[in-house]
Design goal:
Helices cover about 55% and strands about 10% of the residues. The protein is mainly α and about 150 residues long. Strands 1-2 form a two-stranded antiparallel sheet. The two termini are about 25 Å apart.
Length: about 150
């Protein structure tokens, strides 16, 4: 496999992951935005609590407007909390909510089986399980922390 094939596989996996995400109650809610930007922002917030939106944008490479939209969606669902920055009351600091919201629980409980079946164009449980098992191996070895080892 070369870099281009890996990149295209990654794109396919992201699309399957997006397909697997359950739709929020009432659709996109007041704050539409891509599942991708919400998940990227949520992952960064988990790794860097008490960050400002601009800091999240700088680390993730997402435009500040997308991070703001993602933060609004995450706050709306109870996944994160915000508090004024004690050093600059105009800035808000973002962190994961200490409690698991209903939305976070729903997302974590959702499997990828239906999305995989759709992507594979097959309803073969053995084939779906084979791909799911391969993805589980990759997920064990290629954690979000692995990104820190790569070029910014």
């Amino acid at each position: 496999m070369n870099g281009v094939e890996l990149f295209l596989l990654g794109r396919t996996l992201m699309k399957i992951g997006e397909e697997a995400m359950p739709e929020p109650e009432g659709g996109g809610g007041l704050h539409p935005g891509s599942v991708r930007s919400v998940l990227i922002a949520a992952s960064d917030i988990a790794a860097h609590p008490d960050s400002a939106v601009g800091e999240i944008a700088a680390r993730t490479g997402l435009p500040q407007s997308q991070v703001s939209t993602a933060v609004a969606r995450l706050k709306e669902t109870g996944a994160i909390t915000t508090a004024p920055d004690p050093a600059d009351r105009r800035r808000l600091l973002v962190r994961q909510s200490p409690d698991i919201s209903d939305r976070v629980a729903q997302v974590r409980a959702t499997t990828i089986d239906d999305a995989l079946a759709k992507a594979l164009g097959a309803d073969d449980p053995q084939r779906i399980q084979e791909v799911a098992d391969a993805l589980a191996v990759l997920a064990r070895h290629l954690t979000p922390q692995a990104l820190a080892n790569l070029r910014p």
